[in-house]
Amino acid sequence: MRLLIASMSVSSVVFAGCVQQRKFDEVQTSQTTPQTQQPTPTVQAQESKPDVPYVPTPNEVVARMLELANVTGDDILYDLGSGDGRIVITAAQKHGTRGTGIDINPELVQQSQANAQAANVADRVEFVQQDLFQTDLSDATVVTLYLLPDVNLKLRPKLLQELKPGTRIVSHDFDMGEWEPARVEQVQGPTRQHTIYHWVVPENVPDNLR
After folding, report:
1. Other C-beta atoms lying within 10 Å of the C-beta of residue 6
2. Contact in structure between 170 and 144 (CB atoms under 8 Å)
3. Tens-level pLDDT at each residue, the chain (210 residues)
4. What is the torsion angle, in degrees rounded to the nearest 10, for the CA atoms of residue 105, residue 142, residue 150 and residue 23?
5. Rounded Cα–Cα distance for residues 147 and 55 (Å)
6. What is the DSSP string of 80-139?
7. pTM of the predicted structure, to 2 decimals
8. Alpha helices in the chain (DSSP H)
9. CA angle 128-89-86, nearest 5°?
10. Following CA atoms 131, 133, 136, 139 in sequence, which dihedral angle do they give, to the nearest 10 degrees?
């Protein structure tokens, strides 16, 4: 018997994906950013996963959050879940504030660093890849948030324990349960109304808030 051996050639098709980096639309610069290697973000929580999806805060809301917190060049601002860094960067640009952005996503931390370089405020801000529950907040005078209701409630005891009396806290869209805000405002964004909550850390923290 004759055995016919057929040889078959297999061609593989490789798909190349292209990831488009989100651009921070608040950064405006007339100079072309040089193609330099971005610094590697500080990595402290590689195995953790984010509890909150990344949704950018509209720039109109960012501006009013900072105004409501009355930030100045003497403040130290921490943005928990800092995304593309726009709150920290805008505070440095418009108010001269020193700030730190905390995000668990290393790609967003790298993007924030690039945005800070483009906005010429890299000397006033830093971005750290870290679980926000592991972050030391003791030197903050202003804290900004855009998290979720359950995350705010989990975070509340840490804020009240670590932050000094008089520290301002501003949250986009979500409150902190029994902790009554000092002020609540509505801000019209591009597609909907947004709520801003403002608290001041008290000298004596009630037991029900701890």
Report:
1. 4
2. yes
3. 343 333 334 343 333 333 333 445 444 443 334 444 444 444 443 445 556 788 999 999 999 999 999 999 999 999 999 999 999 999 999 999 999 999 999 999 999 999 999 999 999 999 999 999 999 999 999 999 999 999 999 999 999 999 999 999 999 999 999 999 999 999 999 999 999 999 999 999 998 898
4. -30
5. 9
6. ES-TTSHHHHHHHHHH--EEEEEES-HHHHHHHHHHHHHTT-TTTEEEEE--GGG---TT
7. 0.77
8. 59-68, 86-95, 106-118, 149-162
9. 85
10. 110
Contact of 120 with 35, CB cutoff 8 Å:
no
149 close to 28: Cβ distance less than 8 angstroms: no
Would you say 189 and 205 are in contact if contact means Cβ atoms under 8 Å apart? no
Strand, coil or helix: what is 70?
Answer: coil
CA 138/CA 192 separation, integer angstroms:
34
Residue 25: other Cβ atoms inside 10 A: 11
Q: What angle do CA 24, 25, 31 make, to 5 degrees?
A: 90
Which residue has 């051996």 as its token pair? Answer: 5
- For residue 178, the one-letter residue type is E
The answer to whether 133 touches 160, Cβ cutoff 8 Å, is no
